[in-house]
Amino acid sequence: MDALFYNFAPGEVAAYIPGVWEIATPEQALAAREAGSVRALRRILGKLADSPAVERAAELATRAAFAAPSERRILYAALRTLPVPEEPLARLWHASTLLREHRGDGHYAALVTAGVGGQECHVLEALWLGMPAREYGRLYPLSDDELAAVVEGMRGRGLVGADGWLTAAGRETKERVEEITDALAAPAYAALSQHELEQLAADLAPLVDRIKSVGYERPAA
Questions:
Q1: Number of folded domains that form the chain
Q2: Does residue 113 fall inside a structural domain?
Q3: What InterPro entries would the database entry show (predicted)?
Q4: Does the pLDDT of residue 220 top 60, yes or no?
Q5: Quick check: is 196 in a domain?
Q6: For residue 23, what pLDDT is reported?
Q7: How high is the pLDDT of residue 221?
């Protein structure tokens, strides 16, 4: 289980799976996930949710999502087996989840290549953003001692300095991971022409702006 969910805390997923299926079946969970996500998007986007831009973006994003290679992309390959929604906004959301997981699986490969562990990647991201590691959400499951051990391991490899922030080597590692991730994600978009890529970006821009305008407040620990 931990091998599959690379950046979850050890035992975090196993604490809920398979027990959670006694509350809801996988099919029910997937249906609720889609319905809730699309409902939230529709509430935020308002009239934009039914715009021609959403329909165009859904078609282009879906083509890209299913053109992506699935080799060694376990989570992406699993999501790819799910039925594609017919409604444009739901289809755009579905395609986005596929592209996200395709990129995420590639990101795991990039992290392994760079020798960055599943919890170390969260520390790397937090410090890259100028945020103390303890405040980074995905690190909440770790105790203070566990987190300190992760940071100390990175310090021993020269990624984190005595001041608790990234060293030049740490920043270079983060940049290298992102470059590899970008390269591994790129094949999905090769299915679209340059004009189609520009159209997709143009259609998504107002949707992204509207979503970003809502803002996000991190829940209290």
A1: 1
A2: yes
A3: HTH_67 (IPR054058), WH-like_DNA-bd_sf (IPR036388)
A4: no
A5: yes
A6: 94
A7: 38
